Automatic annotation (TrEMBL):
Protein name: Glutamine ABC transporter ATP-binding component
Mode of membrane association: Peripheral membrane protein
Ranges in coiled-coil conformation: 107-134
GO cellular-component term (any): plasma membrane
CDD domains referenced in this protein's UniProt entry, alphabetically: ABC_HisP_GlnQ (cd03262)
Lineage: Bacteria, Bacillati, Bacillota, Bacilli, Lactobacillales
Keywords recorded for this protein, A-Z: Amino-acid transport, ATP-binding, Cell membrane, Coiled coil, Membrane, Nucleotide-binding, Transport
Keyword field contains Cell membrane: yes
Length: 244
């Protein structure tokens, strides 16, 4: 199966406010998609609709061949475990060590044996360059380190798809690079990723496609070169002129 995710005529309204009007798109296995667009254009809402953290008003989200928009909560939970999510604010549990933050869901939700979950967590910490921080508490870490722990925590559930919502935009500039490096490694390892980000260097290096969202639609969709260097719509041109 090539297609990991199919989004068909997705619409999302909050009351009368139609944030997503009609979005149809696909993500293939192993693809990296970067979603860009102005503040308030519905990027976070879109991402949250993909794992049904937000219930679409209409349309379909099909993940690994299963229509999420048609499933009962219990079935949905099983599929949600396969979709990791990383937010702008790292959301680590402050009263738990780094290791416990990472092993909590595997132990509680997936019923993985503690020793095994800890071994996996340590491997993941090593992968994000934080092997020595297993016993640290989040407050003692920098923002960049916390975000790398948040990525390790999401990976601990062994997801097939990773969703990132502006993972570097709350970080001090000097910490952005270390988080992007981890994400680049992940992309190169073949992980399927949908990343809301305005980090053009990252998008150019690893994105297979860039989707420009505005006014409730994906207005432009193409390779980074196509979208960044040759945007066709006026909206994309003026947005890119502001951020590039
Ligand atoms: P972006 O991530 O592109 O900045 P958002 O998806 O956060 O955009 O928001 C898009 C629009 O939807 C905004 O106008 C926002 O106020 C509105 N919105 C988002 N979540 C809710 C909600 N839970 N209730 C009402 N309006 C919302
Ligand atoms: Mg947002």
């Amino acid at each position: 199966m090539d297609k990991m995710l199919e989004i068909k005529n997705l619409q999302k309204k909050f009351g009368d406010h139609e944030v997503l009007k009609d979005i149809t798109a696909e993500v293939d296995n192993g693809q990296v998609i970067c979603v860009i667009g102005p503040s308030g254009s519905g990027k976070s809402t879109f991402l949250r609709c993909l794992n049904l953290l937000e219930e679409p008003t209409s349309g379909k989200v099909i993940f690994e061949g299963q229509e999420l928009t048609n499933l009962k909560e219990a079935q949905l939970d099983v599929l949600r475990e396969k979709m990791g999510m990383v937010f702008q604010s790292f959301n680590l549990f402050p009263n738990m060590t780094v290791l416990d933050n990472i092993t909590l869901a595997p132990i509680k939700v997936k019923k993985i044996e503690k020793a095994k979950a800890e071994a996996t967590a340590k491997e993941l910490l090593d992968r994000v360059g934080l092997a020595e921080k297993a016993d640290a508490y989040p407050a003692s870490l920098s923002g960049g380190q916390q975000q790398r722990v948040a990525i390790a925590r999401a990976l601990a559930m062994n997801p097939d798809l990773m969703l990132f919502d502006e993972p570097t935009s709350a970080l001090d500039p000097e910490m952005v690079g270390e988080v992007l490096e981890v994400m680049k490694d992940l992309a190169k390892s073949g992980m399927t990723m949908v990343v809301v980000t305005h980090e053009m260097g990252f998008a150019k290096e690893v994105a297979d496609e860039v989707w420009f969202m505005d006014e409730g639609y994906i207005q432009e969709q193409g390779t980074p070169t196509e979208v960044f260097d040759h945007p066709t719509s006026e909206r994309a041109q003026s947005f890119l002129a502001k951020i590039l």
